[in-house]
Specification:
By secondary structure, this protein is an alpha+beta fold. 50% of the residues lie in helices and 23% in strands. The chain is globular, with a radius of gyration of 17 Å. InterPro entries: cNMP-bd_dom (IPR000595), cNMP-bd_dom_sf (IPR018490), RmlC-like_jellyroll (IPR014710).
Length: 194
């Protein structure tokens, strides 16, 4: 079994274990896909066609408006699922961009094949629902942090949750993700012993 498929299996089984037959059917959906650095995988206005599993690299989902305001919403990196999930599951035009920050290697499964498998294999549907529920839980925690925590508290929470992220993601994107001015972000890095 290729290393990326083994990583996918470990992630899947940590969310919701599948039987051997269910796993084999699920594994057949995933195809290798590679993208260079700073490439848009899914653009605003496009319908997300794939669920991605990140094998290598770092990506972000971000919003960009007519007034040149940008909001980094989420980062994806190994081992995690990626893509614009609401566009994928609702099959609507994306309101967001999915972009690589570094050269990236994925496995990806088409939504149409994934949907068919979910209809025929209830355990796969449970897996996807559990994965979405974990993502929603993380999003709600992030909303509380953005609305209730000071800039320094948001920075400290990020370091507690994902201490390795400072080495993975350029600091300007982390500052944007936290809603912190880049200058203040630099001050926090210099102030706090990491």
């Amino acid at each position: 079994m290729p290393a990326s498929l083994l990583q996918l299996k470990q992630l899947v089984f940590s969310i919701h274990p599948l039987s051997t037959d269910e796993w084999e059917d699920f594994a057949k959906l995933w195809k290798p896909f590679s993208v260079k650095r700073k490439e848009i995988i899914t653009a605003m206005g496009e319908k997300e066609k794939y669920l991605y599993f990140v094998s290598e690299g770092v990506q972000r989902v971000y919003y960009f408006d007519e007034q040149n305001r940008e909001a980094t919403l989420v980062f994806t990196y190994n081992p995690s699922f990626g893509g614009v999930l609401d566009s994928l599951l609702l099959q609507t035009e994306s309101r967001y961009f999915y972009e690589t920050l570094t050269p990236s290697v994925f496995l990806r499964a088409s939504f149409s094949e994934l949907q068919l498998l979910m209809q025929n294999k209830p355990a796969v549907e449970v897996l996807i629902r559990q994965g979405i529920t974990h993502a929603l839980s993380g999003l709600l925690i992030r909303l509380v942090e953005l609305q209730c925590y000071s800039a320094e508290e948001r920075f400290l929470q990020l370091l507690q949750r994902s201490p390795h992220i400072l080495q993975l993601v350029p600091h300007k994107y982390l500052a944007n993700y936290l809603g912190i001015d880049a200058t203040n972000f630099s001050k926090f890095i210099n102030k706090i012993k990491i």
